[in-house]
């Protein structure tokens, strides 16, 4: 069966399947840094592109390539580039589009290190970023100048769970000749495929739902443009050196096989958590796009298959109450990261999002006391029982 005839769930297991000489079911892990040549003639043929072969794992490796091609099939792209981490993917893609003097327009709420890179690191290299509220298209249009080269966004956003209309953003970008880069980590390709809306590049922290087991750090970028992928792979990933380990590629391939099943359960657990929280007297606000009261609910319905596995919320009262809540949880783990089998809880402003100035948080859609839950795969009754007992302790 050809890849193009397969449904998503089948692609997650079989896309770009390689036929191994030993007929192994799973891809071997090519845990090698280099590949040998029989003689100098073969080396010369390889370096002069007369012969296609692997040379050095930073430039290409069969296990990593399989992961890249499988991700490309799932996102509906031509090809992908794997990176050592999600941040390596994000910084490489941004650097591939924005040079000194150029400007990036980013959504106001982003993962903390992405925000930190744009706000603090890139200005040293002459690349400035304007943070706008992309849920308001007028604000995005007004921010464009002749130097604007990239729109950079997450949807849903981390941790405010804001939803940005991909169709609208792409329309504005294509009129102005601007590239659109979307971090699809929170949705995964099972729930949302931004390339179908005309987005130029999708990036992921593969560490999260792609892995699903909290045991590998990795990143990936996918595009429909094969020439761009070649440039990103050989001009940026390979030169800057943020290469993925073949072992991690193998772990991520293993994770991908169950992505559809896991995403269904993450999403249904998150829905149950959100509905429990919204009715609880101690809860001030729940940020979850599956709630009809969420301002992005209709857009999320349009562009996502389900609303994802993350719920953020504020308790009534001060930060001390939020701290006490997370410290009273027993089953749920206090940890950064998300998308794992275990339900993980954190206070972003104190942990992953410390780069946001306290007085600016409200502008970026969350508060110092905002709590983020990554719904795991445990039985929902057990997750909710733990949340309930922790809330009883702080009331
Ligand atoms: C939305 C999002 N993008 C990117 C990253 C960075 O990924 P990594 O930790 O794999 O570098 C994270 C990490 O939490 C994230 O949540």
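^ structure tokens above, recovered residues below v
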């Amino acid at each position: 069966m050809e890849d193009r005839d397969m449904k998503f769930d089948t692609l997650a297991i079989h896309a770009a399947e390689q036929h191994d000489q030993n007929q192994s079911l799973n891809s071997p892990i090519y845990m090698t840094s280099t590949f040998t040549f029989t003689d100098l003639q073969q080396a010369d043929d390889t370096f002069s592109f007369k012969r296609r072969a692997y040379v050095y794992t930073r430039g290409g490796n069969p296990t990593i390539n399989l992961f890249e091609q499988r991700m490309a099939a799932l996102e509906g792209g031509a090809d992908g580039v794997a990176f050592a981490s999600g941040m390596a993917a994000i910084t490489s893609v941004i650097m591939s589009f924005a040079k000194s003097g150029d400007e990036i327009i980013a959504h106001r709420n982003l993962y903390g290190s992405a925000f930190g890179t744009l706000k603090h690191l890139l200005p040293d290299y002459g690349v400035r970023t304007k943070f706008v509220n992309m849920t308001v298209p007028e604000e995005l249009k007004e921010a464009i100048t002749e130097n604007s080269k990239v729109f950079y966004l997450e949807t849903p956003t981390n941790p405010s769970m804001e939803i940005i209309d991909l169709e609208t953003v792409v329309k504005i970008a294509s009129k102005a000749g601007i590239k659109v880069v979307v971090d699809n980590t929170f949705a995964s390709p099972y729930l949302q495929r931004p390339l179908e809306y005309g987005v130029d590049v999708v990036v992921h922290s593969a560490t999260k739902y792609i892995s699903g087991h909290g045991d590998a750090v990795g990143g990936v970028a996918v595009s429909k443009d094969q020439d761009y992928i070649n440039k990103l792979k050989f001009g940026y990933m390979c030169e800057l050196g943020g290469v993925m380990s073949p072992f991690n590629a193998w772990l991520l391939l293993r994770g991908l096989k169950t992505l559809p099943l896991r995403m269904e359960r993450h999403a249904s657990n998150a829905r149950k958590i959100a509905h429990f929280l919204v009715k609880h007297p101690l809860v001030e606000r729940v940020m979850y796009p599956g709630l009809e009261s969420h301002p992005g609910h209709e857009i999320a319905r349009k562009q996502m298959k389900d609303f994802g596995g993350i719920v953020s919320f504020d308790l009534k009262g001060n930060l001390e109450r939020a701290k006490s809540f997370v410290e009273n949880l027993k089953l749920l783990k206090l940890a950064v990261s998300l998308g794992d089998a275990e339900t993980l809880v954190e206070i972003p402003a104190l942990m992953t999002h410390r780069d946001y100035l306290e007085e600016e948080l409200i502008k970026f859609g969350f508060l110092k006391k905002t709590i983020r839950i990554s719904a795991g795969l445990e039985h929902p009754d057990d997750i909710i029982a733990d949340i309930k007992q922790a809330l009883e302790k702080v009331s």
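DSSP finds 14 helices and twelve strands in the chain.
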